[in-house]
Amino acid sequence: MTYDVIVVGGGPAGATAVRVLGEAGISTLLLDKSSFPRDKPCGGGISARVMGRFPYLDSALANIPVNWVSKVYFEAPSGIAVDYASDERLYLMIRRSEFDNLLFSMACKRVDCVTPALVRKVNFQNDGVTVEADVAGERREYRGRMVLGSDGANSVVARASGLRSGAVKSEYAIDMMEETPYAELGLAERDRMYVYYGYQGQYGYGYVFPKTSHVNLGIGCKLDQYLAGMRGEQYVHHRAFVDGLITKRLLTGASSRANFRAFPLPISGPLPRTYAERTLLCGDAGGFVNAFTAEGIYYAMVSGEHAARTAVGAIRANDPSSKRLSAYEQAWKNEIGRDLSKSVSIQRLLLADLSRVDRIVEAAARNPTLAGLLARYATGALPYEQFKRSVIMRALPLYVREKTRDLFAVHRQR
Q1: How far apart are CA 7 and CA 264, in angstroms?
Q2: For the segment 140-177, what is each residue's pLDDT rounded down to a tens digit?
Q3: Which of 191, 220, 202 is nearest to 93 (CA)?
Q4: Using alpha carbons only, what angle is made at residue 166 by residues 165 and 171, rounded to the nearest 5 degrees?
């Protein structure tokens, strides 16, 4: 049998794409290396925008435990902090094992699903695509007219199609986290998320995300930074972060080594091209992660839906060529391109001078309006363009001071 579309990876991007493909009547096969429900290392926070963008989640989420957060605590490298409480829900906290299984279950109603299926190779021919996967201890081949890669940061599809090549250490972050029941690692306030900017004097982040029955927390930094200055066992760095929060009495109990995970995270924006002959990439496979907030679930789902709609058009037109599939890139750029590109710019700006983070957080601590804008942007509730307009209109004096300070710094260097 030859499928119209083979989707590799059943996380939020792949499951969202499969749902659209199945509803459109497109012959689809979904392959994932794990059986569901499965564990997925991740912070597990989603922008509140996801509810308006995907209305069907409103009823679907009633089937799993969710925790909405309306309070945000930000701490700068210097220790300056701002604690903001919103009248609106800002961030949705879920466990990935539960959320991904929910999306996967909804997606597989109208398509074929094979799990666990570890994809080893993707071969492209003039008339289609062959995907080789290990299933039940044997190598199997599946044929399709095109392939949709949603198989994560280490995407086999991205490599096979030539859309990702070369070293990745400068393009990725490493996130080191654990998700532990409150009975073992307690957190008193469970409607507030904590974000700590800067780690060991370098650009990085720490976070504490309260779930319904678990606390998810960890640290992250650029992979090249980690390799250059933080070599050693990953859990040692994570444990130091957790122990520091226990000393501050934010947490009670102890870290659990058994619940610790480390994973790569693309933080350099979408790949230069996210389409090729008979190929589309979405989610982490295509680099759809906000480089400033490190949030990827919302962008994975958005890119997955656009990829599927492009694939539907290509299959119905009997034209899965690169030229036809280029419409995908324009579609996701129209919706989330500006957000993602600016997130990279902001990340690099802060990386160049951590004192900027101190000044931003200090200003937010003095100005409730600015604190609200920062909280809503940092949680993804506010898109970049709205954030920019609001900052210029409501916090113009701070903006002018920052620009003036930068100009004086340039003159001093000359």
Answers
A1: 21
A2: 999 999 999 999 999 999 999 999 987 667 788 899 99
A3: 191
A4: 95
